[in-house]
Amino acid sequence: MSVTATTPAETAAAAADAAHFLSATAMRGGYGKADILHGCTLNVDKGQIAVIVGPNGAGKSTAMKAVFGMLPLREGRVTLDGEDITGLSPQDRVRKGMGFVPQVHNVFPSMTVEENLEMGAFIRTGDIAATMEQVYELFPILRTKRRQPAGELSGGQRQQVAVGRALMTRPRLLMLDEPTAGVSPIVMDELFDRIIEIARSGISILMVEQNARQALEIADIGYVLVQGTNRYTDTGAALMADPEVRRTFLGG
Amino acid sequence: MDILNALVAILNYVVIPATAYGAQLALGALGVTLIYGILRFSNFAHGDTMAIGTAITILFTWMLQSFGISFGPLPTALLALPLGIAATAVLVLATDRAVYRFYRVQRAAPIIFVMASVGVMFVLNGLTRLLIGVDERRFDDGTRFVINAREFREWSGLSEGLALRGTQVLTVVVAVAVVWALFWFLNRTRSGKAMRAYSDNEDLALLSGIDPERVVRLTWIIAAGLATIAGVLYGLDKSFRPFNYFQMLLPIFAAAIVGGLGNPVGAIAGGFIVAFSEVAVTYPWRKVAGYLAPDWQPAGLLQLLGTEYKFAVSFVILIVVLLFRPTGLFRGKSV
């Protein structure tokens, strides 16, 4: 690609990137020789909830890892707030304002809830008490359990610790890999309510969900991935209303 | 009166020596367990790290003594200890740079680290002998006894004497202080918490912005400190002979595994369990039995195992724990 002469199409693409808070365009890549992502595109606007759904093996978690820099990309680029971050390591992306909650092993089990939150804020230098207070307000149960090791909490509470830990860096984009995996339906509703609350505070959310219906209900934008590429992209409500999507991906 | 005599005998020949020995093992096992928890391999070079750390400390002790410096009633080695720790830490960090970092970058399997540590063990083994020789060396000075057996007999009127050596008290006092400082560091400071976080979940620690190389360096420095302190206390209490430190590897690993590898509280408990088992099993109980049951004249010494077989005790404890509770008493990591 030449620096001096840009085609109108490229200019348009760059303008589109800048318009979205997070823009991951035409990502192609995988773990070994075979690609898992074949030109996958994900955009999230400020304060939006974006949800990635799709069948098993569609590359949902891989797409998340690619956005977070845990997977080398063969093609495509990722921009955050207009800045190209394609070449940055995950640690540097955390410094740029991305928070990531992995699906499993997402807490420090032998450390207390409070210590988990402290470790979340490790890269911050100033006072973290205010942020911790916000996390405790969002998840009141964590305040009562703050002296307990995170490994001794229930699955739902542990997910709250994991989300709280990621919030401690005060991210502008929070990425959640199946936050409701293995929790009861009641806890799931509760977690989704909290996620809406987080988005209302201006933080963009990008999450992968196994519980597609419930997740699309709260989604501003939904991405249906199939075999590493975008199949359907629309608002959550529109995807729920689409008979084709319902039949093939939401079980009727 | 006979019951008192029996109690004093048990105190004198079992409780006091085993407590001092247990404290030394606990400090050694703490180093092993920290390295296992954070660097994720069993460091076979730990015994010889203790040996070379002690050897360096002895050299510094001699240097101080040649300057005419002494520490009053306490052993001069205590003054030389910080110098010994610093030198050992530098040596251990250099070893990490030259050997272990290569495998860490390659993300090698733990067994490769273990084998590399066996190599380091042999090199340290040779270095220690070059540095100070193979002979037995005593380097304790200062007050020998806190309680003297003869004075105790005169004071109490008992026929059984009680001796408490200065090095035994020193061992326990220093061990308590070191353990307190270590736990304070791990639980209260940012760097200590980062070490625990790294031990708990390496990937999440990276995502949180914890620098792994810094954690590794800190771990080596602390392990070098613990090894040198444990080695010097053992050398003051008994005597210094390089081969003994190599042999101590077995009870130290037994202690770390009994407590649960990677768990500091477990390492301390394990140290005392192994020490008390070893001393109790190899102690001839005939004298105590004589006080408690004067009519009974046993033919033997009532010694379960000769002292030359004391390492069998560690082996048995190790095997029993690995068979029935592989994660140890305090839920460490499975071996």
Automatic annotation (TrEMBL), chain A:
<keyword id="KW-0547">Nucleotide-binding</keyword>
<keyword id="KW-0067">ATP-binding</keyword>
<comment type="similarity">
    <text>Belongs to the ABC transporter superfamily.</text>
</comment>
<dbReference type="GO" id="GO:0016887">
    <property type="term" value="F:ATP hydrolysis activity"/>
</dbReference>
<dbReference type="InterPro" id="IPR027417">
    <property type="entry name" value="P-loop_NTPase"/>
</dbReference>
<dbReference type="InterPro" id="IPR052156">
    <property type="entry name" value="BCAA_Transport_ATP-bd_LivF"/>
</dbReference>
<dbReference type="InterPro" id="IPR003439">
    <property type="entry name" value="ABC_transporter-like_ATP-bd"/>
</dbReference>
<dbReference type="InterPro" id="IPR003593">
    <property type="entry name" value="AAA+_ATPase"/>
</dbReference>
<keyword id="KW-0029">Amino-acid transport</keyword>
<dbReference type="GO" id="GO:0005524">
    <property type="term" value="F:ATP binding"/>
</dbReference>
<dbReference type="Pfam" id="PF00005">
    <property type="entry name" value="ABC_tran"/>
</dbReference>
<dbReference type="GO" id="GO:0015807">
    <property type="term" value="P:L-amino acid transport"/>
</dbReference>
<keyword id="KW-0813">Transport</keyword>
<protein>
    <submittedName>
        <fullName>ABC transporter ATP-binding protein</fullName>
    </submittedName>
</protein>
<feature type="domain" description="ABC transporter">
    <location>
        <begin position="19"/>
        <end position="252"/>
    </location>
</feature>
<dbReference type="GO" id="GO:0015658">
    <property type="term" value="F:branched-chain amino acid transmembrane transporter activity"/>
</dbReference>
TrEMBL record, chain B:
<keyword id="KW-0029">Amino-acid transport</keyword>
<feature type="transmembrane region" description="Helical">
    <location>
        <begin position="77"/>
        <end position="99"/>
    </location>
</feature>
<feature type="transmembrane region" description="Helical">
    <location>
        <begin position="20"/>
        <end position="39"/>
    </location>
</feature>
<keyword id="KW-1133">Transmembrane helix</keyword>
<feature type="transmembrane region" description="Helical">
    <location>
        <begin position="162"/>
        <end position="186"/>
    </location>
</feature>
<protein>
    <submittedName>
        <fullName>Branched-chain amino acid ABC transporter permease</fullName>
    </submittedName>
</protein>
<keyword id="KW-1003">Cell membrane</keyword>
<keyword id="KW-0472">Membrane</keyword>
<feature type="transmembrane region" description="Helical">
    <location>
        <begin position="305"/>
        <end position="324"/>
    </location>
</feature>
<dbReference type="GO" id="GO:0042941">
    <property type="term" value="P:D-alanine transmembrane transport"/>
</dbReference>
<dbReference type="GO" id="GO:0005304">
    <property type="term" value="F:L-valine transmembrane transporter activity"/>
</dbReference>
<dbReference type="GO" id="GO:0005886">
    <property type="term" value="C:plasma membrane"/>
</dbReference>
<dbReference type="GO" id="GO:0015188">
    <property type="term" value="F:L-isoleucine transmembrane transporter activity"/>
</dbReference>
<keyword id="KW-0997">Cell inner membrane</keyword>
<dbReference type="GO" id="GO:0015808">
    <property type="term" value="P:L-alanine transport"/>
</dbReference>
<keyword id="KW-0812">Transmembrane</keyword>
<dbReference type="GO" id="GO:0015192">
    <property type="term" value="F:L-phenylalanine transmembrane transporter activity"/>
</dbReference>
<comment type="similarity">
    <text>Belongs to the binding-protein-dependent transport system permease family. LivHM subfamily.</text>
</comment>
<dbReference type="GO" id="GO:0015190">
    <property type="term" value="F:L-leucine transmembrane transporter activity"/>
</dbReference>
<dbReference type="InterPro" id="IPR052157">
    <property type="entry name" value="BCAA_transport_permease"/>
</dbReference>
<feature type="transmembrane region" description="Helical">
    <location>
        <begin position="215"/>
        <end position="236"/>
    </location>
</feature>
<dbReference type="Pfam" id="PF02653">
    <property type="entry name" value="BPD_transp_2"/>
</dbReference>
